[in-house]
Amino acid sequence: MAQQRVCDLEKDQRFEGFLLVRSSDQRTGGNGAKYLDMNLADRTGEINAKVWDGNATPPTPGTVIKVRGGTLEYNGRMQLRIERIRPVSAEDDVDMSSLTPSAPEPPEDMLAEIDATINEFQSEPIRLITREMVRRYAGKLEYYPAAQRIHHAERSGLLHHTTGMLRTAKAVMQVYPWLNSDLLYAGVILHDLCKIEELDSDTMGVVRDYSKEGLLLGHLVLGVTRIQEAANDLGITGEVVVLLQHMMLSHHGEADFGSPRKPMFPEAEVLHWVDLLDARMNEMQTAIDKLKPGVFSEKIWSLDRRLYHAEYDSLQVQPEE
User: Fold this and answer.
1) Buried b / exposed e across 176-212, counting CB within 10 Å, b at 16+?
2) Concatenated DSSP letters of 15-52
3) Which of 5, 103, 251, 261 counts the most CB atoms within 10 A of its CB?
4) Mind listing the pLDDT tens digit for each residue in 221-245?
């Protein structure tokens, strides 16, 4: 029998099944008693879980465990109180695709789309730098997520985010054909590549934490550095390098969001908005997919609002009697 999906869990239900460990820590309560605090997930969602046993060993993030327990509501959120817990065994024959959120397209297809775009660049310096950067990260790019928690936090999520942005950028070029397409598409492909250095992810697309370089520098600074290194290795100098570096620094748009410079030329401005649009749409789709029509979500902190799943079927024109 298929186990119940996390997104469908409601208050006062029993649950038994396999879940992916997103995070796991042993904590101490106000009464001095130790307990296990975890975030567990399947491909449909994530739920906080507690094991009220001070002797329980925290399972390793990225591993799969079997749990039995019941659901409750705490501070307005669903929580799983676990009674029994054990590691997964080979005999369990767990379907990992049911536990790990993954991009909707095969990574090899998305990589091929990026490669085809690079092949069409008219600017040789842009083509060489972009291809060299992708080559350096190609292995991990196949499975890396785009974030730890927020948008495209899934296996191959970075490719999903990049190809989504590329398709939007190509649509924008139809409206504003005077933009430099090579520069815009290269900015899209390069803008988040260094998240592969910023985040510590396993091959399942589960981010354990930020790397030391990620915490100290971040993917914007790392990206500027890696673009310069690639250009140096290729013997490329001049404005093209600076423009690509500026797009890297400015794509978050505002200092409050990590960009030390606002976009200062049109392609950089478009990159910022295409990035924001693709991230927001993914966050919204992920949240809406967990709701029934006519229902509001809880407040989503990254969006600073609740979302509503519209009753789209009610919008259909009713036939005349």
Assistant:
1) eeebbbbbbbbbbbbbbbbbbbbbebeebbbbeebbe
2) EEEEEEEEEEEEEE-TTS-EEEEEEEEETTEEEEEEE-
3) 251
4) 999 999 999 999 999 999 999 999 9
Task: Name residues whose C-beta falls within 8 Å of residue 81's C-beta, 6 or more positions apart in sequence.
Answer: 49, 50, 52, 69, 70, 71, 72
Distance CA 268, CA 249 (A): 10
**Residue 314: its pLDDT value, please?**
83
Q: What tokens does 89 get?
A: 């065994």
Give every CB contact of residue 48 below 8 A, 6+ residues apart in sequence.
37, 38, 39, 40, 74, 77, 78, 79, 80
Q: What is d(CA 67, CA 47) in angstroms, rounded to the nearest whole number?
A: 13
User: Does the pLDDT of residue 96 top 80, yes or no?
Assistant: no
When pLDDT is cut at 50, 70 and 90, the band that residue 198 belongs to is very high
Residue 51 Ramachandran class (φ > 0 left, ψ -120 to 50 alpha, else beta): beta
Which domains are seen in the chain, by residue range? 6-96 (2.40.50.140), 107-284 (no CATH)
Cα–Cα distance for residue pair 125/131, rounded to 1 Å: 10
Q: What per-residue confidence (pLDDT) applies to 319?
A: 62
Q: What angle do CA 43, 49, 55 make, to 5 degrees?
A: 130
21 φ/ψ angles, rounded to the nearest 5 degrees: -85, 115
Top mean pLDDT of 71-80, 197-206, 265-274, 305-314 is at 265-274
At which residue do the structure tokens 């090579």 appear?
A: 182
Token readout for 155 is 């296996």
Tokens standing for residue 71:
């659901």
pLDDT of residue 276: 94
pLDDT at 61: 83
